[in-house]
Write a structure and sequence with these properties.
Blueprint lengths: L1 E5 L11 H11 L3 E5 L14 E2 L2 E3 L12 E4 L2 E2 L2 H22 L4 E4 L5 H10 L4 E5 L13 H14 L2 E4 L2 H9 L7 E3 L17 H9 L7 E6 L8 H8 L6 E6 L5 H12 L3 E5 L6 H6 L3 E4 L13 H8 L4 E3 L3 H6 L6 E3 L5 H8 L4 H14 L2 H25 L1
Parallel strand pairs: 1-2, 1-7, 2-5, 7-8, 8-9, 9-10, 11-12, 11-14, 12-13, 14-15, 15-16
Antiparallel strand pairs: 3-6, 4-5
Length: 403
């Protein structure tokens, strides 16, 4: 199949997310993938030219050797207030050219603002449109004033899509409440690369090397968080609890984001070397940093942006075979449940919980690994994803011929 992917974030600088794992694997299965993205981390004018020119990469694959992803970033103005609106027009024009040159078999959207022109062009050119949802999208729009508008846009796309794919059952319920037809709403759960993320023994030389590079001493216990540092990530609460924890307990944070400078201030003013900040690192290095850790944390606060999600990092934690402590988010509780290796505690209690489980931390890690081996292999999920896209395309063609 020829598949066009539309997203309103940066393909090269954010993630990897579900779409990276799925579409790179689909490429390896012979499908032709083109991605339209938006440089969401751009500095804006005057720190970049007033008009950002169109960019194209012949191959922007990031995680699967041999995969081929054509990436197109349409040109836009870089004025802060006009950058996103101009991207709607630019994406419309870019997608129209793609359709004219080589009509795709299906369009898969992860976007709201640029999803609307994609939906309109799909309808105009009789191409099936799939809405693949990994968040309550309107809830993560930065501007509170724009969230009601984004919600109406999201509802429209839910209603009009030929199929809606959701990463868990809780998010499917949300989609149906937002207008998605139940018979067109499918759960396709998040996966993990079981070969890349796997248990590493405490005496592994690679683990010792990374801990030494990070200045971790023998006997020190490392709590770990990775990913984008949203305001709701809960890492601040971990830092505050760390101040009153035993001195051999340290926190390793791998990633950057909205709260990064706040964490830098906490480190410099109060925590010192008990807080290790690496900033953003290459995805290929994530497993080695995971190997250096002892307890893996997901301290997200429950809010509109998180109540339906199961972050991909949680499955990668579980695959590492270490104890995982996660906030009791509704989506996680429903998707993973109890007694599957994840221990639930709110952000402010996670340091205390880590201290209580450390004497017997092996069993939760084993259960977590068993869970992802049974349910979350990207290879199996990609085959299911491929089947759903084929089904949508075939049903669309059949419906068009019947009409």
């Amino acid at each position: 199949m020829k598949i066009v992917v539309v997203q309103e974030t940066d393909w090269l600088k954010r993630g990897p997310h579900q779409q990276h794992h799925l579409f790179e694997r689909l490429s390896l299965r012979g499908h032709v993938i083109t991605v339209l993205d938006y440089p969401i981390l751009r500095p804006h004018w005057p720190r970049e030219p007033l008009f950002a020119s169109r960019q194209e990469h012949d191959n922007a694959a990031r995680i699967c050797p041999g995969a081929e992803i054509r990436l197109v970033t349409p040109g836009t103005t870089s004025l802060n207030l006009l950058a996103r609106p101009s991207s709607v027009l630019a994406h419309h024009a870019a997608l129209a050219r793609l359709i004219a040159a080589d009509k795709p078999d299906v369009i898969v959207s992860y976007a709201l603002s640029t999803g609307i022109p994609a939906l309109r062009l799909a309808r105009k050119h009789h191409i099936p449109f799939v809405f693949h949802v990994i968040d309550a999208l309107h809830a993560i729009v930065p501007s509170v004033l724009l969230q009601p508008v984004a919600k109406q846009v999201e509802k429209r796309i839910f209603r009009k899509a030929n199929a809606v794919l959701l990463i868990n059952a809780h998010l499917r319920d949300y989609a149906i409440c937002m207008g998605a037809a139940p018979e067109r709403a499918y759960v396709l759960r998040t996966g993990v690369d079981l070969a890349r993320f796997h248990p590493v023994p405490d005496n592994d030389p690679g683990r010792a090397k990374v801990r030494s590079e990070l200045g971790i001493l023998p006997g020190e216990i490392i709590l770990f968080f990775m990913g984008w540092l949203y305001r709701f990530s809960g890492v601040r609460e971990i830092c505050e609890a760390l101040e009153n924890a035993p001195a051999n307990l340290r926190l390793l944070v791998v990633g950057d984001g909205d709260d990064y400078q706040t964490l830098v201030h906490l480190r410099d003013a109060r925590l010192g070397d008990r807080l290790i900040l690496t900033g953003r690192v290459d995805y290929d290095r994530i497993p080695e940093f995971l190997s250096a850790a002892d307890v893996l944390l997901l301290p997200f606060h429950t809010c509109p942006a998180t109540e339906h999600i199961v972050p991909i990092k949680l499955y990668e934690y579980m695959a590492a075979g270490k104890p995982v402590i996660a906030s009791p988010l509704p989506g996680i509780l429903r998707d993973i449940g109890e007694n599957n290796g994840v221990i639930y505690a709110p952000a402010e209690k996670q340091v205390e919980t880590a201290m209580s489980i450390l004497p017997d931390a092996g069993e939760p890690g084993k259960k977590a690994r068993q869970f992802v081996e049974m349910h979350c292999d990207w290879e199996t999920i990609t085959v299911e994803f491929e089947g759903l896209l084929r089904q949508v395309a075939d049903d669309f063609k059949q419906g068009s011929s019947d009409g």
